[in-house]
TrEMBL record:
One of its GO terms (cellular component) is cytosol. The keyword Transcription applies. Gene3D superfamilies: Jelly Rolls, Winged helix-like DNA-binding domain superfamily/Winged helix DNA-binding domain. InterPro entries: cNMP-bd_dom, cNMP-bd_dom_sf, Env_Response_Regulators, HTH_CRP, RmlC-like_jellyroll, Tscrpt_reg_HTH_Crp-type_CS, WH-like_DNA-bd_sf, WH_DNA-bd_sf. Transmembrane segments: none annotated. Residues 1-108 form the Cyclic nucleotide-binding domain. This is Transcriptional regulator, Crp/Fnr family. It comes from the Bacteria. One of its GO terms (molecular function) is DNA-binding transcription factor activity.
């Protein structure tokens, strides 16, 4: 499916030309961590980067997974003494283009078309975040899990004879981090779905056999996949 995957516009692709350098990224490391001084933004060229935030009690809330052509660290723009407000954890080896924050701000001031494209891109990401928090607030743990599964089918879904395979390896703890809940709660809800034949799990990958059921359970509004994704 992968219909939720966005690509950079011609204008935003120009950002790559202003990159200071290309940097390799290694699984298990951080591009940046919450509270660090923000001096750079990154465009993911390959690999995978997870954006997350720690709660006051130390629990992790995963917000999105960034893959090719995604911008990371964008929320620090136009802020004095800016600090990163999220963590960017490298989940898969790859490369990123490194862009100086001050240089990008200057280009956005000078190039109105680039600024407009960047605003549209930011608006899309804000809408994705808003819908995710809406699901968490309105539908609780069950709704958070079910909406996360829907988002993952839009981002990583592969049609098969048996249903839609979410082609992303996740532990139950990692899935719980996307739902702001515990691994035990996710285990229980996944087992309920398996017993009903709604999903199956093989080698840490989930196949959705009845996506309609999951959507109906959370009164899914059928938002465009570009807004209903995990990326």
């Amino acid at each position: 499916m992968n219909s939720g995957k966005s690509t950079l516009s011609v204008e935003l692709t120009e950002l790559l030309k202003s990159a200071d350098h290309i940097m390799p990224i290694k699984k298990g490391t951080f591009l940046f961590q919450e509270g660090m001084t923000a001096r750079e933004l990154y465009i993911v060229l390959s690999g995978r980067v997870k954006i997350s935030k720690l709660s006051s009690d130390g629990r992790e809330l995963s917000l999105r997974i960034c893959t090719r052509d995604e911008i990371v660290g964008e929320l620090t723009l136009f802020s004095e003494d800016a600090k990163y407000i999220f963590n960017a954890n490298v989940e898969e080896d790859g490369e990123v283009a490194v862009i100086n924050k001050d240089e990008l701000e200057r280009k956005l001031f000078e190039n109105s078309k680039l600024a407009f494209e960047f605003m549209k891109w930011m608006s899309d990401h804000f809408r994705k975040t808003q819908t995710k928090f809406r699901d968490l607030v309105l539908f609780g743990k069950k709704g958070a899990l079910y909406s996360t599964l829907v988002r993952m089918t839009n981002s990583y879904g592969v049609p098969t004879e048996k249903g839609i395979l979410i082609d992303l390896t996740l532990t139950n703890q990692e899935l719980a981090n996307f739902c702001a809940t515990t691994r035990e709660s996710v285990n229980r809800m996944l087992n309920e779905l398996r017993n009903k034949g709604i999903i199956s799990i093989y080698k840490s990958k989930i196949t959705i056999h009845d996506l309609h059921y999951i959507r109906a359970e959370i009164n899914c509004e059928g938002c465009p996949a570009v807004f209903c994704s995990i990326e």
